[in-house]
Amino acid sequence: MAVFDHIPMGEEGLKEIYQWLDDWVAKNKGIVHKEVIGKSPDHWDIPAVFITNENVPNDDKQIAVVTLGRHGQELGTRMVGPEIVRYLCSSDAEEIRKTQVVIVVPVVNPEGFVLNKFESSMTSLTKTERLVLGGLFKAFPPDMMMDFHSLGKSAGSKYDRGDMEVIIPANTTTWAMDEQIHQYIAGEMKKVAESEGWPYEIHTLEDLATYYFGDTQIGNMPWTYLKEKVYLLHMQDFYDHYHIPEEDLYTNYTCGPAYLKWHTLVFGMETNHYALSQAGDIGLSGLTPCSALLKMGCTRMPWEKDVGYPVNILHGDFRISIRPLGRKVSERRASRIRIWNERKNFNLPQREMVDQETTIARVRYFGWDLPMEFALCLRMRQNNIKSVTTRSKEVQFETFKDHCSTYVYIPTVMEKAGTIEFAIKHSYQ
Ligand SMILES: [Zn+2]
User: How far apart are CA 171 and CA 255, in angstroms?
Assistant: First the structure.
């Protein structure tokens, strides 16, 4: 049974959802609390619901944010927010609450909700969103963020109207391995959704732009498609920092700037309020990929050193990468954000296997944020890593494994700009 078996509409509908949230929070004290994080231009509260195990310090937890309802007429999002909040308080979500602070903003745009109108922007965050989300993220910079939208009869693909539900690896880039990682995670979400009976598709942001901006006439499709395929990633607003008033650049999803600013794992979601004719089904089909992603945040990806969202390859690739440092989750987040914002001041790290038992790795940092602390991480086919040295001095390192290889993780500090070289001694095979 879904929380809402009808679509709440108008002022009464908004009050109905807010009342449900208040009742739910009152019934689940110790797990969930609510904060009003801002007001809409017409003075409605914008509440955020925080769900976490309050006995575990927040420093040991990741931050996951789910926003919904930024486009007022996208009715499907209305049932999904409460459904996610209810799920997060269930026993199935115990591990999520232990390892994450999950923040759900069920109605980002109450004004649009009441009017049942778009009342938003496809090209940038609105002033309200900048203020409200900017304030929230100052205290809680997200490690993962997803933003729910909803397609209907007229909004959808130019070639497939009325019936799609979509997971969108949106507002990411091809930097490091990000495109591949976002696609991998989207694939896992899709698998879970399909196993529950919800046929989601995966489309990139470029594909989505084609639905909206492409010409409806079939003959014009290839040109528009090709143009936007290469163009779109370059027109994101790099300076859309949630609080700086910039205009006219593409931010359909609230999570876009979070990737650019904090290397957050970001997804857009499109549920469907036309094809899913039962309101309850919309809530449940929206919840499924969301809970799948939140659960993945409690596991260790094969290429990651620690449990959590895969956001730590900041430069390079799976073979050789620059990664954050820190024992606590909050330390790693701070380190990640610092290195990510300096990523253009690193050369692509290099590796060279000079003989069967020796690999040399080099990093060049030419920025000013000194001393620069990071870890260099290499994926090795050899099982046995004997030593790591720099300037003939042995240095500490850690190892972790995936199913067929060993990762060497070398923490380091560069006191001044320049190149640092490591020699890794390993077994013959
Ligand atoms: Zn939308």
Answer: 8
State the residue for tokens 């944010």: 65
How many whole angstroms from 205 Cα to the centroid of ligand 1?
Answer: 12
Which is more confidently placed, 225 or 156? 156
* CA 71 to ligand 1 center in whole angstroms: 5
Q: DSSP alpha helices (H): ranges in 232-298? A: 256-262, 279-296
pLDDT of residue 250: 47
**Helix residue ranges, H only, 94-247:** 94-99, 110-115, 127-139, 178-195, 205-213, 221-231
Q: What is the pLDDT of residue 162?
A: 79
Centre of ligand 1 to C-alpha 52, Å, is: 28
How many angstroms separate the alpha carbon of residue 203 from the centre of ligand 1?
15
Residue 5 contacts residue 280 (beta carbons within 8 Å): yes
Cα-to-centroid distance, 252 and ligand 1 (Å) = 7
Assess whether pLDDT exceeds 70 at residue 195.
yes
Residue in the structure block whose two tokens are 């969301």? 290
Which pLDDT band holds residue 226 (cuts at 50, 70, 90)?
very low
State in Å: Cα 9 to ligand 1 middle: 17
333 Cα: distance to centroid of ligand 1 (angstroms): 29
Average pLDDT over residues 132-143: 93
Residue tagged 């309020």 (tokens): 273
Structure tokens at 196: 């529950």
CA of 70 to the centre of ligand 1 (A): 7
Banded model confidence at residue 212, pLDDT cuts 50, 70, 90: low
What is the pLDDT averaged over residues 313-342? Answer: 97
Res. 156 pLDDT band, cuts 50 70 90: low
3-state secondary structure of 357: coil
For the record, the structure tokens of 17 come out as 């959802």
